[in-house]
Structure formats: structure tokens, C-alpha cells
Amino acid sequence: MPLTDPPAQPLLEARGLRFARNDDPVFGPLDFSVDAGEALLVQGDNGAGKTTLLRVLAGLLRADAGEIDIDGGAAGPARRARAIAYLGHLPGLKADLSVLENLEFLCGLQGRRRGQLPEHALGIVGLAGYEDALARQLSAGQKKRLSLARLWLSPAPLWLLDEPYANLDLEGIELVNRMVQAHLRAGGAALVTTHGAYAAPPVRTRLLAMTRPVAERAA
Ligand SMILES: Nc1ncnc2c1ncn2[C@@H]1O[C@H](COP(=O)(O)OP(=O)(O)OP(=O)(O)O)[C@@H](O)[C@H]1O
């Protein structure tokens, strides 16, 4: 009889996850999981709770109910720090450091993906030649690209990407999709928020459709 591998744990699993502000429900209860090699597309209208969900998963907000497992164990600070790379609305850059210094600083904090160097990441995101520019001198799209270089350098397997296409031109949108594809091929996973499917990465994708809970609509 052939031996079969035990089923792998999902990289991320949420059970009964719920969040409210001042007793006003924002989302949930939600149940979903994301396997290695898979993207979860989080879709919903403005205010549906997509950013709030990603912030809860990243540990920046506390859920009112439910459980989050990462790699088969309860999500705590150490597990999150090791497993999660978060790309939020704000670039989170040091304005007075150069482009290269920003990446070197972050690699010092978070470590880096095996075999990848800051200079290489800048080439991937189209910022070769900007190494010595100060971060505050970059355009919004260039700042986004620098954040993407940081994401690419992170050794974390689980990417939480909040509207990663914002501020990017068409070529930048394709860049995000190529990065997500390569990350998934390497065994990572990604949650990607978007308003529509217009820029969904062409990878194995599950969909999580978010709508405001009924109680709040009635309010
Ligand atoms: N800091 C905050 N304080 C109070 N309410 C907030 C705060 N941030 C968000 N909200 C509210 O929580 C709800 C969900 O917001 P959230 O930003 O998660 O939605 P979203 O789906 O990401 O929206 P968008 O597509 O516009 O980015 C909204 O009603 C919003 O007004």
C-alpha cells in the first residue's frame, strides 16, 4: 500500500473571526484558510472591512472573537514576526534615509530572503539607479515600489497585501502580479485586498467576499 504524506497545515487559518468597533460590527464571523502556494483575494466595497481584517491578522488590532492559526499554531507575536510581511496603505519608510539605506535598515530588522540582496531587489522593482535618492524625494508610485522591494526581501512566507496596486502604473501592476506568482511558487502565500478582480494575480486563488454585517447596515 503506498504511503501518503499527512495533509499539510494551512499557512493561515481563521475560525469564527469577528471584529467590532464600539459594539458596531465591522466583519465576521469569518472562517477561511490559506495554503502555501495559494492566494486569498479579499474583495469588498469601500468600508467593507478589508483593511481591518488584514490589521487583525497582522496583530495590529485585537479580534473580538475567533482564533487565528499560523502554520498550525496559535498566532502570537513571535509566530507573526516570523511568518508575516505586511504591506499597508502607508509606505513605512524612513524619509531621510536613502533608498538603499532603507532596505539595509529593514534587512537588519527582519532578515532577508535567501540569496536576495537589496541592490537586486531594487532592480526587480524598477528602482535601479535610485540607490542614493532620499526616500522623501520619491513619487508615490516609486515609494510603493520601494515598499515592494522590502516585501520581496522579507523572509516571511505569508504576505498580507492591502491594495498593493494603488499608485502603480500598468507595468507596476504586472510587477506585483509577477512577485506574487514567484512568491507562491517558492512556497509562500498571500492575502490580497482589492475592490474588484481587475488586477487579480494569475495564480491559484480563493475568494473571500466581504460585506458589512447586517446589524450595522440597519443602524
Ligand atoms: N481608525 C478607525 N476608527 C474608526 N473607524 C474606522 C477606523 N478605520 C476604519 N474604520 C471604519 O471601519 C470600517 C471598515 O474600514 P476598512 O478600512 O477596514 O474598510 P476597507 O474595506 O478596507 O475599505 P476601503 O476599500 O475603502 O479601503 C469602515 O466603516 C470605517 O469607517
What is the element string, with H for helices and E for strands? EEEHEEHEHHHEHEEH
Bound molecules: adenosine-5'-triphosphate
Assign the structural class, choosing from mainly alpha, mainly beta, alpha/beta, alpha+beta, or little secondary structure. Answer: alpha/beta
- Assign the CATH topology of one domain: Rossmann fold
Straight-line distance between termini:
60 Å
**CATH first level of one domain:** Alpha Beta
Q: What name goes with the CATH superfamily of one domain?
A: P-loop containing nucleotide triphosphate hydrolases
Determine the number of helices (DSSP H or I, runs of at least 4 residues). 7
Poorly predicted runs:
none
C-alpha-based Rg, rounded = 18 Å
- SS strand fraction: 15-25%
Shape: globular
- CATH hierarchy: architecture of one domain: 3-Layer(aba) Sandwich
- The percent range for helix content is 25-40%
Strand order of the largest sheet: 6-7-8-3-9
Arithmetic mean of pLDDT: 90
User: Main beta sheet: strand number and arrangement?
Assistant: 5 strands, parallel
Beta strands, count: 9
